[in-house]
Amino acid sequence: MKITYLGHAALGIEVDGKYLIVDPYISANPKAAHINIQNLKADFILVTHAHGDHVLDVEAIAKNTGALIVSNAEIADYYAKKGFNSHGMNHGGSWNFDFGTVKYVNAIHSSAFPDGTYGGNPGGFVLESEHKNIYIAGDTALTYDMKLIPLRTTLDLAILPIGSNYTMDVDDAITASDFVECDKILGYHYDTFGYIEIDHAEAKKKFFDAGKDLMLLPIGDSIDL
Question: What total of structural domains would you count in the chain?
Fold first, then answer.
């Protein structure tokens, strides 16, 4: 499994020959100006919630690739009415796709499209492939529901928001990593806007002191699990 950080909360995931894009907010992000969405491969687009900084490029990428949009029922229906292929889920539900299993899990946040349309309840995803399992938290506060994840899935990586103001901060993300029982963390949802800028060195030290590995990837860089 190869995971590429595309800036803010956007990810590219390559698993078992399939390409996934998560929460694409790229074309309006000046920090990701070197990423051309027309060059992105996508068989699936996973959307955690409907805010503009997570759905901005969904339609453009879906039009270019024909990707299946996977999200909660309201978001999936929103795109289906626009003619896009979509698969709706809800909290606690799982579905077996041809790259692995996706479970839609709880997140504490809000969710509305930029045009004001209700975006359903926000969530995160647990992806289980043949060899590796990851948790994509989406935008969320720290929640005890995270403790449910390791009861079913042993994670190889947890992708957690760390920018504070709109989501968890670094300290809560450390607790979240305890809850999901995963010491390998990819941080995201930080630095894009002034409200969520972080001290990288301090964040990494806090995780290190807690016996954990926090990765803060340059935009466009990848890791292999």
Answer: 1
Q: What DSSP line would sit under 119-140, residue for residue?
A: ----EEEEEE-SS-EEEE--S-
pLDDT 10s digits, 100-144: 999 999 999 999 999 999 999 999 999 999 999 999 999 999 999
Contacts (Cβ under 8 Å, ≥6 apart) of 43? 18, 19, 20, 65, 67, 68, 99
Does 178 map to a domain?
A: yes
For residue 223, being part of any structural domain is answered with no
What pairs with residue 135 in β-bridges? Answer: 126, 158
Question: What pLDDT is attached to residue 196?
Answer: 98
- 172-182: buried (b, 16+ CB within 10 Å) or exposed (e) per residue? bbbebbebbeb
CA–CA separation, 21 vs 168, rounded Å? 22
CATH of the domain at 169: 3.60.15.10
